[in-house]
Amino acid sequence: MPLIQVVLASTRSKRFGERPAAWVMDRLGARTDLDAELVDLRDHPLPFYDLATPPAHAGRTYPDEVTAAWAGTIDRADGYVVVTPEYNHGVPAVLKNALDHLSIELRRKPIAYVGYGGTGAARAITQLRQIAAEQDMAAIRSSVPILPDVMVPALKTDTFDVEMLASLDRRLDTLAADLVWWAEALKAARKA
Ligand SMILES: Cc1cc2nc3c(=O)[nH]c(=O)nc-3n(C[C@H](O)[C@H](O)[C@H](O)COP(=O)(O)O)c2cc1C
Description:
Bound molecules: flavin mononucleotide
Structural class: alpha/beta
Oligomer: single chain
Number of strands: 5
CATH class: Alpha Beta
Order of helices and strands: EHEHHEHEHEHH
Strand content: 15-25%
Shape: globular
Number of helices: 7
Radius of gyration: 16 Å
């Protein structure tokens, strides 16, 4: 079964992101066609990019333990679901910085996006698809936008439950099924 990592892309204190990430983990965890693992960028406090050798040329050599732990974590997955907000019509800086530290670890793997905010992070996801192309990844068609009608009640409550996002289950199911297809296909192709 492919290992799918759910990357929680906001590190902000009092972030909303952990709520949709918990929902994605709950739903992916119930599937029998993948193994799901949460990756929280808070657990990987990378410095601003300062690598002497660009990741694309460095192979799997890393200058410090934090970078090695981040890259090693991402390296072992077969596909990714990034749960992301949008900051000023774009990709959150902490996510872009984390992606810039990677290259070979992501190559020829699929990636999908769950976005939240005024437009479901549509502008950030558009940018992330461009970044994925440069990183030689397959950004799959399906995404899940969590729009204000669903986000605001889930944001404002003190007693959040993942069922508050259940209206998006079908979209997430489609995303997960597509992602597994690509993860299996590309895993086999990488092996060959
Ligand atoms: C610096 C900053 C910029 C933002 N820019 C946007 C934006 O461009 N579009 C949008 O829909 N929401 C924007 N928002 C609102 C976020 O959607 C909202 O604060 C969300 O909770 C952020 O995710 P987080 O709480 O997981 O960090 C912005 C929030 C911040 C902090």
